[in-house]
Protein: histone acetyltransferase
Amino acid sequence: MSSLSDHPPYPRAVFLHVLSTNSAALSFYKMHGFEFHASLPYFREYYRIGEQLADGCTYVKYINGTYTNVTFTDVCRTFGNTICMPLKAICKMLSF
Structure:
């Protein structure tokens, strides 16, 4: 991260994609300051594992003194995703 933030063009944010069921990666990214940004539903084909489509999500880490403006809609979306994403993952795991 220091090689990104300490040199031109001095980016304001770092985004990443991750499979929504990859709990180890999600924990790693959260531990390193990344925040949930958006859901990537399976029907948009962001991830394909074999013949199965899978949900993904994006995370963001704001750097170089920038931050996001939080709106009421953002709060509602984040709350909804926090509740729905784990439930969707559990349902997918239980439906063989």
About this structure: The first helix runs from residue 2 to 5. The mean pLDDT is 79. Strands lie at 13-19, 35-40, 47-49, 52-54, 56-62.
